[in-house]
Design goal:
single chain, five-stranded antiparallel beta sheet, three-stranded antiparallel beta sheet
C-alpha cells in the first residue's frame, strides 16, 4: 500500500468538521495489527489497540493546499512493538469521534522495532510537506 488520505474525511475537511490548523491533530504509531481501509475507515476506533502511542503536532500550517507541522517526537515509546505505519487524526478525546486524516506506510525507516526511546518523525521538507491536497 502507499500513503493516502482517508476518503470519508476528505469531505469532513471540506465541510470544516476538521480544522487542520485549529484542531488537535495527532500522529499515531501503529503495528501491522491495523489493516487500513482508504474507503471504509473513518474514526480512530477502526485502529483500536494497533496504535502504540501518539503525539500532538505543533506549529501546524495549511498554505496553498499543503499541510505542514514541526517534526513530531513521541517520547519513550514502549519497547517491543514493530511499527509498520503511522496515521494522522483529529483528536476529540474519543476514538469514536476522532476522525482519521492520513495514513503513512512508505516512510523511510518503516518498519522499525520500538526500544523504549523517543521516536522522531521528521516530515519531508519538499514542496508537498506532510501532504498536499494539490500537486504543489
Amino acid at each position: 500500500m502507499s500513503d493516502f488520505n482517508y476518503m470519508k474525511n476528505l469531505d469532513a475537511i471540506g465541510k470544516k468538521l476538521i480544522d487542520l490548523v485549529g484542531d488537535t491533530i495527532k500522529v499515531g504509531l501503529c503495528t501491522a495489527a491495523y489493516t487500513a481501509d482508504v474507503n471504509a475507515d473513518e474514526f480512530l476506533s477502526a485502529v483500536g489497540s494497533a496504535m502504540v502511542q501518539a503525539a500532538a503536532l505543533t506549529t501546524k500550517s495549511l498554505t496553498g493546499g499543503v499541510f505542514d507541522a514541526d517534526d513530531a517526537t513521541l517520547a519513550a515509546v514502549p519497547a517491543g512493538s514493530t511499527i509498520t505505519q503511522f496515521i494522522l487524526y483529529q483528536d476529540t478525546g474519543s476514538p469514536a469521534t476522532s476522525r482519521l486524516i492520513r495514513h503513512f506506510d512508505s516512510y523511510s525507516g518503516l518498519p522499525f522495532l520500538t526500544n523504549g526511546l523517543d521516536v522522531v518523525i521528521t516530515w519531508p521538507s519538499g514542496s508537498n510537506k506532510i501532504f498536499a491536497f494539490v500537486n504543489a
